Amino acid sequence: MSRKLGILGGMGPLATVEFMQKIIAQTPACSDQQHIPMLVSNNPQIPDRTAFLISNGDDPYPVLKQGMEQLEQAGAECIVMPCNTAHYWYPRLSNTCRVHMISILDSVVTEAQQRGYRKVGILATTATMATRMYQTKLAQKQIAAIAPEQDQQQAVMAGIYAVKAGDVEQGHRLMKPVFDALLEQGADAVILGCTEIPVALAETVFLQPEQCLDSLNILAKACIDWATADSAELVA
Questions:
Q1: Domain containing 87: what range?
Q2: pLDDT tens across 12-51, in order?
Q3: Residue 194 annotated to the active site
Q4: 147 vs 52, 82, 97, 111, 211, CA distance in Å?
Q5: Is 212 a catalytic residue?
Q6: Which end of the chain is more exposed for a tag (fewer CB within 10 A), N or C?
Q7: Distance CA 234, CA 119 (A)
Q8: Catalytic residue among 78, 97, 194, 223
Q9: pLDDT by residue (tens digit) across 138-157?
Q10: What's the predicted TM-score (pTM) here?
């Protein structure tokens, strides 16, 4: 296993570590040498993505681009961002990136399509919801989307920031009722579309895997597929 994966992380740092653990746990390896080499930029100082998109905070793009370039210079052959909201800048970054990039949004929507889902709920940051990143891509695949109500969305954001602050239990208490409500509205499954959410709902992911589209886990699998593909598959 020699292909080097670059991880543009820190958004937040706990989610980045969880993402790495998911890659390691699922890689078909029998020794250290069979695992995927990872170059990690775990930079928590990247400006808050939601603050920029919702309330005129500092623009994260220059710091994201700098981190991407540092990973390229360090030898990364593929770069991923384990942050859904940061994918607002994915088109700009991928257009200038010199190596392959994998989109967490495309990976999740493709998984939903492959599972045959026709209607899915979305748990994500307020910025991800407002920019309709998931809704647009789901509509392109003829998959209907269900969004939380305003008060539910406020609970989701409070839960996300609780996880960022290290209070995973509070994140679970705030987000699990919203997850359940989306299923009650007819969702086949729920996109856990912020990388803090699978951390908070880890028990739910374990107990109800078919009703969870875990964005962290799906991106981890896409990275393993990339690293283990033969050269012909990468060119295709």
A1: 5-103+217-228
A2: 999 999 999 999 999 999 999 999 999 999 999 999 999 9
A3: yes
A4: 21, 22, 32, 19, 16
A5: no
A6: C
A7: 31
A8: 194
A9: 999 999 999 999 999 999 99
A10: 0.93
